């Protein structure tokens, strides 16, 4: 059954759109059927164009295989291709229109033919569909075959054919195939091209010879010349000798030479020219020192330098060797030093921009290097892209080292230097360190420093005694002892002071010592800034204490001197001016006057009434300090016993501690006994008198603690009772320690003394909490709000009290002063970890806490 034809009124609207749509369908079906054949033909053309092998069985076989594949593709395409019918063209055009109007116009009314209303509705529908055909557009063909060619073979073949069209050899080959005599015009088909590529480090662009006018042509040495000839080679004559291998001919289609000398480059032929090539030599780089060496008190130094090159400086370093000819080879430096590689430090070079001129500053900190403080020969070396090297004149300097001002720290650093100089100095270093620590109480070393040094000395002596190395000491043990000496020296020189006055006094002492040692202007200026900062902190603390202290009814003294911050700054400026003028004696005299004024201000501040319980806590601190001293003495006695039993046979009658007991008799009664038993022989340490003396001192300390416990002021709450219980437990531990000392059982005594110190610390902590609660209660009775009372009894993790009525913590308040610093440090770390893990806190605060934890 055939469908009705379209109405006559729509035929004109469909004529050209239908024809164009049909043409597109023909193209679409043709491409879908014959794209494999087109791919094969394009690939064959590309291969044939670049084919360089002459007639051979392989070439013939390849051609036959290609022809067979093309025939198969042709047959497949013919069978697949079909011509589109009119119905198919109408259907394609109708599918592109909304509502399919062409199909609607070809339909007939199925029901209601006898109903006038139904017929009118049908006619209206046909009229609407006919209106949609006005302005209809043809349908574009669908040429996509990506689904049938997933690997893109057609694109690869098309690319190869396009490349083949860009080259001329296929034209000659086509002429040979067709029998045309291509040699009839050899000159017209011959051509050449060439370019010169300067070395990459020069930063210069490549030169295309066809664009360069004949005549002089200057290029950097090391540039690469490339020539390529096309067509008939006999049409050219090349003459060049740029690298010692002359080019005559030509006999090849491609030439490459590295330009190393001046020569003539001549190309005779189509488009040829002559150039006079000049090879520009690459000068070596230069480097030199461009200023004076400046150093700081911490050991940092800076040295200005300048480096130049005609193209670019690619690398640079400073190399230092030991200046043995300028050294004072005495004491620990008398032996030959151990061989060490040269000290090499990279020079700072800019990341961007030109490197033809570099004005930089070498800044380093080599205070821990074994050569720190010793003469060295410093040489700067730079290198350019041609691997040429430039070297500066050697500079003889003293390798900057940290300036230690503490006398014990100076001695430790000097022995560290001798130990790093040669491991043969190990025995000598151990003896000198024992001599330095002969009387530890006179040195006033911080807690734990003496024991750390004594432990290091014993490890050093043990390593020497049991080592079979020629140097007498293993290298890893040498480095361990050197690290210990350095850490202790830094700790002693920096100090662990929490009081503003002590920091100020230490800064003044360091400044005076530096002036006596002849420090440089930079170091003195740095120390002067340290004194200024410590002075400001001290004045701020005095002002804060004055505000928080109760008002006194006593009038100020008549002869009192009032000084402002500006007056003190004027004195500091005067001291600095005297130092710059070289008048150190007057500067130190004025610094002493300033120190006395600060101490008088401290005495006036201390004359104010003290808070309740402050004297009691100071007494407990003194008791804890004395108990620590007794424990250290007992530990030294225990170590002396162990060393005496091991060294008796090895060293005979020679005294311990580096020969300090050489004046003693064989029965142990002669000679002078050192302080706290230091330097005494084993017989003396084991004598009953020594143990009875320690036991008596321990018993006296127990009675002192008992009196302090009975006189503990106030604090009747739970915390106060806990403080008394802890002190009672400390007293019992002291009694057990006294009994053990009397019996000569030093290990048991040390254990009980440790228990006593731990109980003492707990009692002091409970006492502080009780006094805070009592203070909070007093403030609440005087009218303060309950919230303020709670804030006054709280402390931050640093042990500081809230500042003023607002409850804010003052940043100038020092860390809680007391013996239990390690426990407070652990509490601080725990508090930081807790706050950093609190998700409710701001991200900025949590990031800051995490950075703190990363540093510790």
Keywords:
single chain; 856 residues; alpha+beta; five-stranded antiparallel beta sheet; 20 strands; 12% strand
The number of helices is 26
The gross shape turns out to be extended
- Total beta strands: 20
Structural class: alpha+beta
Strand content: 5-15%
Helix content class: 40-55%
Mean pLDDT rating: 77
Catalogue the unreliable spans. 177-188, 547-561, 603-610, 645-688, 783-794, 796-800, 802-819
What's the main sheet like? Answer: 5 strands, mixed
The Cα radius of gyration reads 49 Å
The order of strands across the largest sheet is 3-9-8-5-6
| Distance, first to last CA | 94 Å
Explain what this protein looks like in three dimensions:
It is a single chain. The protein has 856 residues and is α+β, with helices and mostly antiparallel strands. It is 51% helix and 12% strand. It has 26 helices and 20 strands. A five-stranded mixed beta sheet has the order 3-9-8-5-6, with no helix packed on it. Strands 13, 14, 16, 17 and 18 form a five-stranded antiparallel beta sheet that branches. The protein has a four-stranded antiparallel beta sheet with strand order 2-1-4-7. A hairpin with a 6-residue loop joins strand 5 and strand 6. The longest helix is centred in the N-terminal third of the chain and has 39 residues. The chain is extended and about 135 Å long.
